[in-house]
Design goal:
Elements (H helix, E strand, L loop, with lengths): L1 E3 L2 E3 L17 H9 L3
Antiparallel strand pairs: 1-2
């Protein structure tokens, strides 16, 4: 469990990543790439 702004959250994954991107992408594209979604 983690706490953000005094609110408790149960987490399944904690990911710390950096990306270099050329072009325009959506947040959902990044999440899909991490978890192998198409």
């Amino acid at each position: 469990m983690i706490k953000i702004n005094n609110t408790d959250f149960t987490t399944k994954y904690i990911i710390d990543a950096k990306f270099k991107i050329k072009g325009v992408v959506e947040k959902s594209d990044i999440v899909g790439a991490i978890f192998g979604q198409r």
